[in-house]
């Protein structure tokens, strides 16, 4: 079983070695919260997602001098549906088929997001997908793979290398 808190702490130290930001971790998400999120999103959450969020309901950073100003990197469950809607809004008009199937929960705080992409049978593909707004051209002829990149890694691998 993965020790998510330790992995997140290590990720934080790697990402913020100067100590300018405090790590903020949400409390564990309840089974009810995760079931409600599945209902809101309309698909069964992958086991790794459930394991992670059962340990902590998101995490982010806050400036040392402003501890209440949290910028969530892994969005808390209560924010995921709206965050997904916001990110998909970038390309919904030009690539509706893909927008409907993309569910980001990792927030780069710049308009980009990382999350799950569902296949035609409403099952998440292995790994996660990253939306890059800077590569998106607002053109329906653009290949979706130019701005929505498959990252063949799960949450554990993602946190270990990013």
Automatic annotation (TrEMBL):
<protein>
    <recommendedName>
        <fullName>Knr4/Smi1-like domain-containing protein</fullName>
    </recommendedName>
</protein>
<dbReference type="InterPro" id="IPR037883">
    <property type="entry name" value="Knr4/Smi1-like_sf"/>
</dbReference>
<feature type="domain" description="Knr4/Smi1-like">
    <location>
        <begin position="28"/>
        <end position="150"/>
    </location>
</feature>
<dbReference type="Pfam" id="PF09346">
    <property type="entry name" value="SMI1_KNR4"/>
</dbReference>
<dbReference type="InterPro" id="IPR018958">
    <property type="entry name" value="Knr4/Smi1-like_dom"/>
</dbReference>
């Amino acid at each position: 079983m993965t020790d998510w808190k330790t992995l997140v702490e290590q990720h934080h130290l790697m990402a913020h070695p100067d100590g300018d930001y405090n790590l903020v971790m949400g409390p564990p998400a309840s089974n009810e919260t995760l079931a409600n999120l599945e209902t809101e999103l309309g698909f069964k959450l992958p086991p790794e997602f459930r394991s992670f969020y059962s340990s902590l309901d998101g995490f982010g950073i806050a400036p040392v001098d402003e501890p209440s100003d949290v910028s969530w990197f892994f969005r808390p469950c209560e924010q995921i549906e709206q965050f997904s809607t916001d990110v998909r809004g970038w390309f919904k008009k030009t690539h509706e088929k893909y927008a409907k199937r993309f569910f980001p929960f990792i927030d780069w705080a710049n308009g980009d997001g990382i999350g799950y992409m569902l296949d035609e049978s409403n099952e998440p593909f292995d790994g996660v997908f990253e939306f890059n707004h800077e590569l998106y051209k607002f053109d329906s002829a653009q290949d979706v793979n130019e701005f929505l990149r498959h990252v063949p890694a799960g949450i554990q691998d993602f946190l270990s290398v990013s």
